[in-house]
Amino acid sequence: MAWDDDSFGSGTDIFYRRSVDGGVTFSNTENLSLTAFSESIRSRIAVSGQNIHIVWQENVPSDIFYVRSLNGGNTFSSPGVNLSTNSGNSEWPDIAVLDSNVYVVWADSGSIVYRPSTDNGETFDEIWSNISEGLVFPFSPVIAAS
Q1: pLDDT category, 138, cuts 50, 70, 90?
Q2: How far apart are the C-alpha atoms of 106 and 143, rounded to whole Å?
Q3: In which element (H, E) is residue 51 found?
Q4: Are 92 and 105 in contact (CB under 8 A)?
Q5: At 73, phi and psi to the nearest 5?
Q6: Which residues of 60-87 are buried (b: 16+ CB within 10 A; e: fewer)?
Q7: Nearest-5° Cα angle at 130, 13 to 144
Q8: Cα 122 from chain centroid?
Q9: Residue 143, CA distances (Å) to 36, 49, 96, 112 in order
Q10: Strands 11-16 and 30-31
């Protein structure tokens, strides 16, 4: 599981814990965003086998970040990769995964954008912009894969 938390008073971060016994016990809490005095919010998680993919919105600057684990959540890539890399407001991320394909969408300055990976999040293709085709205020996109 992943969630947003401001328990330590130094800005909201993205935290992660895992259970391998159906929720009877959980691993230690791990901070995935590690951004002091910032806002890391709106975490989303997708899983395929032992591969765990997490995205979130970082508010300073307003960008979409991504981490992955290829070993069932024992370790995560670090630091998070900025998928949006632009000067606009990137927010409301969502993620889906199917086998080694990872699909990320988010709202970006008045458009819904999409960025896929075909190698388990090792690299991502270019951003596909304007998926929302001219709608004025699109936000909170969701994505699924089957």
Answers
A1: confident
A2: 10
A3: strand 51-59
A4: no
A5: 90, 10
A6: eebbbbbbbbbeebeebbeebbebbebe
A7: 60
A8: 14
A9: 30, 19, 6, 11
A10: antiparallel
Q: How far apart are CA 38 and CA 65, in angstroms?
A: 13
What tens digit of pLDDT does each residue of 83-121 get?
998 778 899 999 999 999 999 999 987 789 999 999 999
Nearest to 83 by CA among 42, 127, 51, 40: 127
Contact 28, 78 (CB under 8 A): no
Token pair in block for residue 50: 């032992």
Tokens of 20: 């391998």
Question: What DSSP designation does 120 have?
Answer: T
Amino acid letter, 12: T
Please check whether residue 82 is in contact with residue 64, taking contact to mean a CB–CB distance below 8 angstroms.
yes
